[in-house]
Design a protein that fits this description.
Order of helices and strands: HHHHHHEHEHH
Shape: globular
Number of strands: 2
Number of domains: 2
Structural class: mainly alpha
Helix content: 25-40%
Radius of gyration: 19 Å
Number of helices: 9
């Protein structure tokens, strides 16, 4: 099967790496012998091994629990020693939950014209996200916003003042937004060659960022007619 970003998340956070060690790993030690658990192998080899061991139903189930509004964690895959995992964590301007640092909206951060500032903010966010995630896993809490997979940064380009989420963008300059997004993800993930502190997931894509006369228009607005 093809390289899967979803499988990377599963591999990083739910198969015995760092804090997310499942009960299944203890009960089934043979699972540790699978190539995807061998940290000496290249990422691509580990991911391909894991994806090829997953059934279609297991892949569908993982994807069903990776959307925005958390409906519960992705189920454990006990036969592979993979524990539960919550994908939905918002980290747009900090670890957006109780007892975490709140930074300015992205548009305000962009006005600094400082990629280094974005990088340092993301570093702090990644540390808080990872710390919170470790704590939640110890408490077996897999509710909303407990994972280490961030739904951020927002890379939409500000194109129309009628869109209701312009403040989440870095503005209307694609180049500047790209520089900021790169700095954000690098700061969030860290530079360790073996471990990822927290993962970044750029959003949003395809027909998202136009005028919002109603909630549905986020997905279906006519870019030529509405913005022409």
């Amino acid at each position: 099967m093809a390289f899967s970003v979803l499988a990377v998340f599963v591999l990083m956070f739910a198969s015995g790496w760092g804090s997310s060690i499942s009960k299944a790993n203890v009960q089934k030690p043979h699972a540790a012998n699978y190539p995807f658990n061998n940290v000496s192998l290249p990422w691509e080899d580990r991911v391909n091994d894991l994806v090829n061991r997953l059934t279609l139903a297991e892949i569908q189930d993982q994807m069903a629990h990776s959307g925005g509004s958390p409906s519960g964690p992705a189920k454990a895959i006990e036969r592979l020693g993979i524990g539960q995992y919550q994908f939905a964590t918002e980290c747009l301007r900090g670890d957006m939950r109780t007892n975490a640092t709140a930074f300015p909206q992205s548009l305000g951060l962009a006005a600094s014209f400082s990629p280094d500032l974005i990088f340092r903010m993301a570093q702090a966010t990644g540390v808080e996200v990872r710390g919170s995630h470790n704590n939640y896993v110890q408490k077996k809490n897999y509710g909303g916003h407990t994972g280490a997979s961030c739904f951020a940064p927002v890379i939409n380009i500000m194109r129309d003042p009628r869109w209701g989420r312009n403040q989440e963008t870095y503005g209307e300059d694609p180049y500047l937004s790209g520089v900021y997004a790169t700095a954000y993800i690098q700061g969030l993930q860290g530079n360790d060659t073996r471990y990822v502190r927290a993962s970044g997931g750029c959003k949003h894509f395809d027909a998202y960022g136009g005028p919002e006369s109603n909630p549905v228009s986020r997905m279906i607005f006519n870019a030529q007619g509405d913005m022409g």
